[in-house]
Structures are given as structure tokens and as C-alpha cells.
Amino acid sequence: MDALNRMLFLWINATPDSPHWLIRVATFIAQDLILVVPLLIVALWLWGRHSHLPSQRVLVLKTGMALIYALAISGCVGVLVPHPRPFAINFGYQFLNHAANESYPSNHGTIVFTFALAFICWHRVWSGLILMAVGCAIAWSRVYLGVHWPMDMLGGFLVGMLGCLASNLAWHLYGEKLLQLTHQAYRVLFAGPIRKGWVRH
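== undecaprenyl-diphosphate phosphatase ==
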């Protein structure tokens, strides 16, 4: 498995001869494209048709729960199965500054794949597939720039699946109560913007 991981890394990883424009594009994807996750979550909670808001807010909360579970699992795996990043062992080429912390599974991969899987499961398949394409682009960029192994991204995908499963199971136990408490807190904290019509009730 390690030999396959290294082979795939060398196949994807940029070199000093790679086009500078492609490295810049990959840097943008690796660093900034993941911002679609918090922006979309906030937008789905605050705005939308009144008839769609209840289902949107359930989606937001279930996705948030899945992200928390997935990142907790990712953190435990990183501690239990530490794996150095490629540049930490002087393997391949690095084009993005990054701390030499544990590599597996990728936190970026965990977040974006959890988000995509949540939309596939609880929203619409087409929206989830679009987000999955975004996740694949982020996964490619971080391997291309030399800060992750391909298997780190596969690990993020698998952890995302576990996070969504845990969220779905937990929803049947306390999801409705948590949704009610979240609504109450939202109405208190956003009372002014709600009153002015800037955001939905």
C-alpha cells in the first residue's frame, strides 16, 4: 500500500518544470476553495424560501454534526496512526508552506468530503456531486503541491462517511431537541437582523 501511495504521489506531484500558472491555480484551490463550506452553511441557514427553510436548517445542523464527528475521528486516527507528510521525509516537491504535522487523514479532505457526502445523503444528489467535484479538486491540489499523500485524501473520504453515519444515528437520539435549542439561540442572537428582514426568522 505504501508503494502504491508513493507511486500515485509521484504521478500527481508537481515538479520545478510544472507550469507556474497551474501551480498558482492549485494554490488557490488548496487554500481558498474550501471556504465554500462555511459560506454555503451560513447561507442555507440564514436565507431561502420560507417553505424550504425547515429542511435547509435540518441539513445545516446534520452536516455540522457530521463535520464535528468526522474531525474528532480524524484527530484520533492522526494520533493513533501518525504518518509524516511527503516533504517531512524529503519526498517529492513542496510548493505550499505547511507545518510538518500528521498527514493522515487530511483535514481538508475530511471537511470537504464530509460536506459533499452530507449533501448527497440529505439534500440532492446533484448538489452533492458538484461538491464532490470540488472535494476532488482540493484533494488533487494538495497532493500536487506536495503537502499530502493520495491515501490521506482517501482517508478523509472514509472518515467523512463515518461522520455522516454517526450524525444520522445521533439525529434520531437528540437531533430534534438540538434543532429546537439552536433555533432559540439563533432567534435571540439575530433578533435585530431578523426584525429588519436581513435574514429569515
